[in-house]
Fold:
Amino acid sequence: MEAADRLVVRTIRHGGPWLFVLAVASVGGSILELALPYVIGRTVDGLTAGGAAGPPSGSFTDSLTASLTTSLTGCVLVLAGVVACDSLRVWAAGATSAHASAWLRRRITRHVLGAGPAMTRRFPEGDLTTRLGMNAEETGRAPEAVITGASLLVPTAGGLVALTLIDPVLTLTLVAGLVVILLVLRAFLRDTTAVVAAYQEVQGGIAARLVTALSGARTIAAAGTTDGEIARVLAPLPRLRAYGMDLWRANARAGVQTGVVVPLLEVAVLVVGGLRLAGGDLTVGELYAAARYVVLGAGLGSALGYIGRLARARSAAGRVGELSEEPPLPYGARELPPGPGTLEFRSVAANGLRDLDVVIPGGSAIAVVGRSGSGKSALAALAGRLADPSEGSVLLDGVPVRELSRTALRRAVGYAFERPVLVGDTIGDAIALGLGIRPARASTPSAPTSAPTSAPAASVSVLAATRAACADEFVRRLPQGYGTPLRDAPMSGGERQRVGLARAFAQGTRLLVLDDATSSLDTLTERQVSAALTGELGGRTRLVVAHRVATAARADAVLWLEDGRLRGFDRHEVLWSAHPGYRAVFQAHVSEPAPHSIADHIQAPHSVTDHTRSRARASEPAPHSALATGPTPNSPQVRVPDTATEWAERSGAEHS
Structure:
């Protein structure tokens, strides 16, 4: 628990300005409680002394009245101070806990998001939510538990000192009882910490199951397995109940033990004090004060509740601290030089990928194909540095992506996913995510389709990206256009994908990575998006994870992965005609005729030197076809020509 204890200490330090108020109120209240028995004892001694002095005279009565008035005033003031300190302590404890919890949540949330997808691979989403929510809040209560619990040491120490001044024999009696109480508290902290840790772990497991069930609510309803799913989500409840009962037993056991020790300790002190009073060694006021100081000293047993809170805070801090074990993705400080977006993988190995050596020419459209588990999504993640390779390096325009600053990398690379998560308050915010702008908003369906002339250039580019993704029309039909809150904008899977594509188009100025990002689009919309990719977005490098024959056919070249290795890198028709294994990847599309020319999908430009036309022309396998003969570790680097001249020369060689 050393790491957890360190996190608890850091959380206490970030309790905010109310932390000082909490400490002053707790200690001040303890000191006033310590002074109260003394003040009351002096008042009692004054009364008994007055009664033993004989018949009162006028002057004596006045003096006694003044003395009693002073003593009673002192008692009232001390009591008022105790009440005020206690009220202030309660207020400061709540404010400090809230401030500490907020600091911890911000810190851990920043770390979780900085770690990227690696975090969700290690921790289920529901468990993450529990750690960031409930466990962070429990850790944030550590300042109150520690400071208020520690303030109980003040009356205990003061009681020992006061009893020593009254009669050292009484001090020895109190010390013996305190040793027993400390042993009980120590055992309670140990047992409670272990039980609470197991309890919180089961809570996280239930939350993870619930989030999984909610994400598949439609599937569960369609399958009619609601009852079974409820049973699956709540299956850990018996374990949770068992740990809860263990926690209550630990509390009850420690409560009974301290509840027995404290009264016995008070009786022992009163017996010893009574004997000392009978022997003339104590006054009545001193005996009363001694009895009160014993109660204050033994009040350390009331720390049971604070010890329980501290145990929960330590256990919760351990769970929250585990999130910090996943290192965040570090960024460099370099900027990208001018370039077309050339992407290069050098001896890359990661998440099933092995010995990947390939250069993707800037401005080209590359389809990444392969069977499930071949490494397509892993390659897509490496391209824009959502993950780092375990071996080798990835370069964008000659700069290792590890060395790029966060801003330079995220402005250069745009990602679109199969199931995009839309982040932001409105549709416009979701599209402009990370750009620091809000696009011009159309509030009515009849709003013009062009951006207002007053819109910033960046906002205009967002609207252009939305149109390229075929999303502008349906977004403007929403009640508030781009200003429609996401919660009020029900979208189909295809519409959500179009918004995700718009976000990628707006952000990726050099490289677009589309990880099966058009799977939910209808045929017409997919063709329109493909036309935008080869038209207005054609100046960017496009890496498209594809499962359809048509998508592969429309690409400039196909990067074929098999068992984590590069099996081939060439035009679709070349791979299709030369290798049965490539055709087997598209077995689901056997009913679709294999296109022998992609000229049907992309209108060829008029220039012979245009490399897009060269890549679009159907041909027989070239003498230097980039079809890999096998996944051998020492195979030469596979690449396609990256200049128009090379493409023209290669095309001439194919027709000679």
User: Anything to note?
Assistant: DSSP finds 25 helices and eleven strands in the chain.
